[in-house]
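Moderator note: this is an archived Q&A kept for reference. The question asked for a predicted structure of one protein chain; the sequence and the answer are reproduced below.
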Amino acid sequence: MMRQAWQTFRGWALAWALITLAGGVALAQWEMARQREAFETDARIMHRLLSQRVVQHDAILATLALLQPAPEGPADAAPEQRLPALYGQILAVQRRDRDTEWTAPALRTAELASRTQKRAALGAVDMAGGRYQLVLAAAPSSYALLIDLRAMVPWSEWPVPPATSPVRVTLEHEGQHFELQPGRLADGGWRFEFHKHLAADSQPFDMVAVRTMGWAEWPWGRMAAWALGVAAALAGWRQWLRQRAARRRAEELLRLGQVARLNTLGELAAGMAHELNQPLTAVLANTQAARRLLDEEPPELATARGAMVQAVEQARRASDVVGRLRRAVERPDLAGPAQAVNLADAVRRALYLLEPECQRRNIAPVVDSTVDVTVRAEPVALDQIIHNLIMNALQALEQVPPGERRLTLTLGASEGQGRLAVADSGPGIAPEVLTRIFEPFFSTRSGGLGLGLSLCETLASNQGGTLTAQPNPPRGAVFRLSLPLAQGSP
């Protein structure tokens, strides 16, 4: 019983572990998908904001080239010098007029590239310093902007707080990179990346966003709640299954009990009718004889003759009452025609019904079945026989210490008969009792009616079988039930 209970517990624990694992994996995948989606949404917003700024730089240079203000006074008093006050990312604006030259070689090279490409071109790029130059060739004057990379970011519209966000964002160009926000990158975990060029060809920077998701970010709280919920649901389900099994077991026991009571009442009525019929018949015969004798006497015995007539009538009436009682409660024929019944299934049904009795007595029945046995019997009658035999064995085993209690059910077939042996290690049956074990009203148990085994033998014989009892060395008893094999059964 302990082994069976442990196997049941292990099965439920395994089910809990599998369901919890499946739910935990689903929650983890959902959380990862949510984090990835949030990361990609933020990264796309960052890319759009930065792209708007670099496109703005192209527009500023195009506007300067279009307006081409005439040089008047010193260069630092030109209108374009007011741009740094309007745009925080523009650190300085340079202009090369027709008769002048750029002071830096990088600006001259960028102006040549701008004339060839007919758009603005990058000048010197200092990612370590967080600056770069953007040059546009025009006539009569060309312009160059010195741009601050960090100031280029519209922080007021930035989707995440740069100081605390776990996302690392950098701008990269030809092996150089500038860190816009540091993020928090763990060594392990899962890595999300976003890599895309900014929208202006004149400023071919790559925006790279990286995010790692570590173990600490998994939804452990929801996972724990899921595990507890699964445990509670399985516990409730198990309790419901146990209650349903107990209810079905009680209903089946009630049905068998009703059948047993009817059969026992039939046995009792048949015995009473047999016992009462003989004396009633003798009374009837003697009374009739007395009437004939009295008829030969003088007429003054008419009163006695009338009394005898009344006695005869009363005796007949008593006989009729007993006959009616016998017909009313006489054990009926089997509940249905005989049919093919699997003997192992019948044993399993009986053990299922008696499982609480076995557990209460700490007995683990052993079923030894090497062949599939199908007998021809009435299912209800067969269930009642096996139920009674096992119950008798359990009651006998109560008389021995718990450690010595053994109950074995052996199934087999031979000589056209399906056979079931119910062996126990109880106190056994005395030789003088063994000869009377199947007699009606004979019982060695206090309070017993002595009809159970008699009824089992009657049911077995009515189905063409036999029921015998023998000692079970070294101690105990064995009851052997034999029933005809069904057609087609090996």
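Archived answer notes: Confidence is low (pLDDT under 50) at residues 328-335.
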